[in-house]
Structures are given as C-alpha cells and as structure tokens.
Amino acid sequence: MYIESIRTTIKGKKYVSHLVRETYREKGKVKHRTICNISKLPKVQIELLKNSFKGYHGEFEVNDLKLGQSVEYGASYSFKNLAEQIGLDKVIYSRKEQWRNDILALIVGRLIYQGSKLSLVNMFNDTSLWSLYGHNHGERPDVYRHCYTPMDKLLKRQKAIQKNLAGKHFSDGCLILYDMTNTWFEGEYKNSELVSYGKPKGGKKGYKQIAIGLLTNNKGCPVAVEVFKGSTSDQKTVYEQVKVIAESYGVKNIIFTGDRGMLTQKRIDEVNSVNFKTITALTHIQIKQLIEVDIIQPGLFDEKNIIEVADKNIRYMLCKNPECQQQDDYPSILALQITNINIIYCSHILPYYSF
C-alpha cells in the first residue's frame, strides 16, 4: 500500500490528487487499484501517512529497529506491589533501608525463580527485580552484602516480626496449630549447635539434621517458626511454645492441637498450667484402660450416631470406626481435652486431621 500523487493541468490550472493505492497480482500480471482519495486532507496528515506507509514512525525508522535483550518485569512488579499492599515491607522493618529492600527482593525472587541466592543475583541481567529494589540495572548485587548480611539483620528482627504477625492472626479463643518436621544436611557441621543426628521424619537416614517447629492459625497461615537441635523430640518443645504464645504474644484462652506423640499427658498438664485447652488423640493404652474399667463399651458404639458417656467430670462422645477397629482391635478415638473435661470423638469424625 502506498500514496500516489497525481498532478494534472486543466485550462492552465494545476491540480494535485493524492490517492491511497495498492498493488496486486492477477493472472501473473501486476496491477494497481485505488483504495481511497485523501486529497482533501491537510498536507501535514498526508505527509504523515506517506511516512507511515514507508515505515517511518515518529523520529525513528522501522528498519532501524533491532532485536535486543528482554528483561522480566511484570512478575517482579506485581509481587512487589502485593507485598506493599499487605504490609509485608513494614512488618519486616518500619524504615526504608536497603537491607529491607534486599530481603523483599529475596522473597519475591524465591516466589518467581525458585533458586538459590547465588542464582538469583546472577540473574541481574535477565530481571528487573534488583532494579525495582534500589540496585542499578546491569550491576550484579554482591551475594554476601545484599543477601547474607540482610538475612542476619532479619534474624535479629524475628521476634518482633512474629509478635506483629501473632497480633494479626492470633486472638483469644482461637485455634493454634503446631507441628514439627526436620531436614537433613550434607557435609560436616563440626561447630554447629543445632545440626545433629536424630530420628528422621522424611525417611532420610544416616544424615545429620535440624528440627523445625511451626505455629499457624486455624487456616494454616504461618505465624512463627523456630529451629531446634536435630535430636529434639516433638513433645519437648511444646511447653516452650505455649509460654511464648501466652507471654510473648499475650494470647489467652486458646486451643492447642497436637498428635499423640506431641501431647502426652505430661505435656497436656503443662499446657493446662497456663490455662490453655488442648485437642489430641487418645493412645491405644488409654482406650484399652477405658474399656477395661467399663467406662466405654465398644458394643454400644454406633457407626453414624454419637454416643455420649459421662464419668464424673469427664464427658465422652463416641462413635464406631469399623476399619480402625479391625486394624487396632480398639475404636480409634479423637480426644478434645478442656482443662478437667474431656470430650472424645471417634477419629473418622475428623478424617482430615491425621493422628
């Protein structure tokens, strides 16, 4: 497509027509046809159209455009805005300092690229992440200065950050979930106070490990995390976590949930000492004892309806689970203990919670 200017002279007068035309082939022959007449347009617009058809746009030419480097921007910018909207930046530190920006860059980078810190700084030419957080584009951030040093500062802020999160996600009467896991390490850690041999949960045997405890609200939102020595058992961490919740976070009258291995009777007594309620599962020995003293009778259980049995200040609500009973020879029961009152449910009432 092009613009053809036709000049004619009629009775001594000169006329100029500007036509938008295109070229096409018909039966092997090149032909031309008129699309429209733009003679009445201002000269400026006609010139702009001519340049446009020739490939000229503004102050540059299309032919001068070259394929260059593309840099990721959208994901980094979106997660940066999201972090600011939810107040994550202010939770980390109230002042705008470069170490805080570096921490936010590490968080956003982890969400997008799923790599190590060294890998993230080596992507400085491929992403706008670091430039969005105060670094000059094209300059590689120093991994020690802009990754490891900020993490040391973040560690010092851990208690303050977790207290802030607890204020948002914990409240009196809420349900707090606590669980532990562990992760193994390769190589030697001779001077570490935390890395040691322990009972692995992921089946990775023969490696040193650390234990990790996590506190969440009833929706599973993480609020606090703590690292323990690799040989630490779950139940030994319960009382310290309860004291942190009660004393540091100022939360009263809550329900602490744990499995049989975590909330033994001794730990239940410790939790109750700060007036916290607990929810856990009865062990097979406890179920057997209840059956032997005729407090509960499996023959009275129903698979659908809950049976209620009272014994002094303890109230039991029971239901039969045929699959668990066939496997264990005893009804599988979930126990909710509230100070001196126990309310016990069959495990299939809460199938989503594994005990």
Q: What does this protein structure show overall?
A:
- The chain has 355 residues and is α+β, with helices and mostly antiparallel strands.
- Among the domains are: 2-61, no CATH class; 74-156, no CATH class.
- 32% of the residues lie in helices and 26% in strands.
- The protein contains twelve helices and 14 strands.
- It has a seven-stranded mixed β-sheet with strand order 8-7-6-9-10-13-14. A three-stranded antiparallel β-sheet has the order 1-2-3. It has a two-stranded antiparallel sheet with strand order 4-5.
- β2 (13-26) and β3 form a beta hairpin.
- The longest helix is centred in the first third of the chain and has 16 residues, at 98-113.
- It is elongated, with a radius of gyration of 36 Å.
- It starts with a strand and ends in a 9-residue tail after the last strand.
Short description:
The chain is α+β, with helices and mostly antiparallel strands and about 350 residues long. Among the domains are: about 60 residues, no CATH class; about 80 residues, no CATH class.
